[in-house]
Amino acid sequence: MSLNVSLVAKASLCALALAVVVPAQAEERPDLNGIWTNISMTKLTRPAGVDKLVLTEEEAKRVAAGLGVAGVSASERRDSNAGTDPNAGAPEKGAKDFGVRGYHAFWIDPGESLAKVKDSYRTSYIVDPKNGQIPWRKGKEPDRSGSIRYVTGIGDNTDPEALPLTERCITSFGNTAGPGMLSVLYNNNYQFLQTDDHVMILTEMIHDARIVPIYENAKEARANHRPASMKLWYGDSVGWYEDGALYVETTNIRPEQMAESSVSITENGRITERFERWSDDQIVYSFTVEDDSLYTQPWTAELAFYPTEGPVYEYACHEGNYAMTNILQGARIKEREAAKK
Q1: What are phi and psi of 17, to 5 degrees?
Q2: Cβ distance 126 to 44 under 8 Å?
Q3: What is the pLDDT of residue 254?
Q4: pLDDT tens across 26-53, in order?
Q5: Which sequence spans correspond to the domains of the chain?
Q6: What are the two backbone dihedrals, phi and then psi, of residue 13, each rounded to the nearest 5 degrees?
């Protein structure tokens, strides 16, 4: 009889423990499921001449109203008929408007507001350092001359690998997929999907899907990083829940991806992202970049995701796209013509 009582008592204690533990675990895991957008006219770094991070709503409206996007002025951006004139002919070779005027203004959709994070409007995504700038070590700021192809149409056409990763539709434009997920000219939508042991982030821009395994804690997650010899696009990401937020640590990012990224890092650096469900209609998202070989200190950016309507449509980047074929064929024809001369 005493044995049965003991078993009942133990069972009751176990049931009580489960009743206490399960809600605590559920409370520590934020619900990130859904379709979200980080659309914003705020940029990673703070514009020249702006000395404060936070603006009032009225100040933010004035700033946003005067911002141009990708060579399109604020007034043109609001004019659905602005953009490339189909009867104007091709731009002059090397002209400054070769690429930036390549979009009809109808497709440009960076939003109409600066980023609102928590309850304040921001002039930059970078919150640390306080000046809103990337703390480069002297001589380590990367050469961004490769982007001149977009502006002028002039670039290396030796072979397919000479074209940028984004132009080949291998990685997302403007760091939309991360790590360090930023808003860009258009297509700023995402779908977050949580399971018991993974989190998937589907990015609208170039249809990237980041699949992050989730572990019990940071120590276990870091112990499960893949070998350095396995180099994946978007790096090796592992995650865990802590303090009511999702943390994702990414290491071993491919150097060729980082060469075209607005969030530069070497193979020895790491990026730690944090997702916090701030309210029913806001996920506060931050990421910290650590790489002593590039930066004088770690730096942190912070932005927000807001609910939006779905679904997230496929971005079929190279379906029926003959640009690369034509670029390479044209270059070979010019080479044959030059050889004949």
Answers
A1: -60, -45
A2: yes
A3: 87
A4: 448 999 999 999 999 999 999 988 999 9
A5: 34-69+110-307
A6: -65, -40
Task: Quote the tokens at residue 74.
Answer: 């604020």
Contact 135, 303 (CB under 8 A): no
Strand 116-117 and strand 282-290: the pairing is: unpaired
Q: Can you spell out the DSSP letters for 283-340?
A: EEEEEEEE-TTTBSS-EEEEEEEEE---------TTTT--HHHHHHHHHHHHHHHHHH
Q: Is residue 185 a contact partner of residue 83, using CB atoms and an 8 Å limit? A: no
Q: Please work out, in degrees rounded to the nearest 5, the angle formed at the alpha carbon of residue 48 by the alpha carbons of 42 and 52.
A: 65
Where are the strands (E) in the chain, listed by range?
Answer: 34-37, 54-55, 116-117, 120-122, 126-128, 189-194, 198-203, 209-215, 236-242, 245-251, 270-279, 282-290, 299-307
Q: What is the pTM of this model?
A: 0.84
CA atoms of 114 and 203, how far apart (whole Å): 21
Classify strands 209-215 and 236-242 as parallel, antiparallel or unpaired. parallel
Pair type for strands 270-279 and 299-307? unpaired
Whether the pLDDT of residue 199 is over 90: the answer is yes
Least confident of 156-170, 225-239, 262-276: 156-170
Give the confidence band of 13 by pLDDT, cuts at 50, 70, 90.
Answer: very low
Which region holds residue 74: left if phi is over 0, alpha if psi is between -120 and 50, else beta? Answer: alpha
- Compute the chain's Rg from CA coordinates: 24
Residue 145: phi and psi, rounded to 5, are -65, -20
- Alpha helices, DSSP H, located in 29-147: 57-65, 74-77
On whether the CB atoms of residues 302 and 272 are closer than 8 A, the answer is no
Region 85-110 average pLDDT: 66
